[in-house]
Structures are given as structure tokens and as C-alpha cells.
């Protein structure tokens, strides 16, 4: 920290996302799923079962009125589930062997 002003960085370039980009992403995601379907099914089931457990716990405890706020916050779990899917895709792309310990770690 010399006290000197820092030069401003260049204005970032903002890319646009086209339908072709979305189609390509879905195609690559499907390709990863067909190469390692158990991992995709595992992470999807964790998300689905998590929702069922949350709903069952709230209704079973007589807290039905909490179902709507809990459902609104439930998508926050999505990025944590996505991390596992990203790791599977990364390993497939780099040719690293898939294993539950490596993917979940």
C-alpha cells in the first residue's frame, strides 16, 4: 500500500447469450449425463428427497404455514447440488477417473 492511486481497469465486455449457446450447453450437459448417469441421478434425487423431507417435517410437525417460506428458500440448495455436477463434468472433460470420493469431496 504505497498510497498511490490505482488505475481503473478497462470496461468489461458483456457477451450476449444466444439460443445456440443454450442449445450447446444442454447438448454438452446431456452428453455428460449419458457418460455418467448415476451421478446425475444421485444429485437429482438428493434435491428431490430434500424437498420431500422438508415438506414432511413441516407438515408432520403441524407447521404447514412454514411450507411456503421454506419452499421459497429451498432453491438456495441448488448451487450446492450443482457443485457435484460441475465436478463430474470437469473430470469428464479432463479425462480424470470418476469416483464417488473424488466427486463428493
Descriptive terms for the model:
105 residues; mainly alpha; 67% helix; extended
Structure classification? mainly alpha
Report the portion of residues in β strands. under 5%
Helix content bin: 55-70%
- General form: extended
Task: Please work out how many helical segments DSSP would assign.
Answer: 5
Plain-language structure description:
It is a single chain. The longest helix has 24 residues, at 37-60. The protein is 67% helix and 0% strand. With 105 residues, it is mainly alpha-helical. Helix 1 packs across helix 2 (37-60) and helix 2 (37-60) runs antiparallel to helix 4 (78-94).
How do the strands and helices of this protein lay out in sequence?
Layout: H1 19-35, H2 37-60, H3 67-73, H4 78-94, H5 100-104
Question: Would you summarize the structure shown here?
Answer:
The protein has 105 residues and is an all-alpha fold.
Amino acid at each position: 500500500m504505497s498510497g498511490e492511486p490505482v488505475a481503473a481497469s478497462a470496461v468489461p465486455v458483456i457477451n450476449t447469450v444466444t439460443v445456440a449457446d443454450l442449445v450447446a450447453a444442454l447438448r454438452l450437459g446431456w452428453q455428460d449425463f449419458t457418460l455418467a448417469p448415476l451421478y446425475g441421478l444421485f444429485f437429482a434425487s438428493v434435491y428431490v428427497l430434500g424437498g420431500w423431507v422438508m415438506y414432511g417435517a413441516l407438515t408432520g410437525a403441524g407447521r404447514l404455514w412454514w411450507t411456503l417460506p421454506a419452499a421459497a428458500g429451498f432453491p438456495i440448495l441448488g448451487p450446492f447440488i450443482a457443485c457435484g455436477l460441475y465436478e463430474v463434468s470437469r473430470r469428464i472433460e479432463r479425462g480424470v477417473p470418476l469416483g464417488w470420493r473424488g466427486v463428493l469431496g
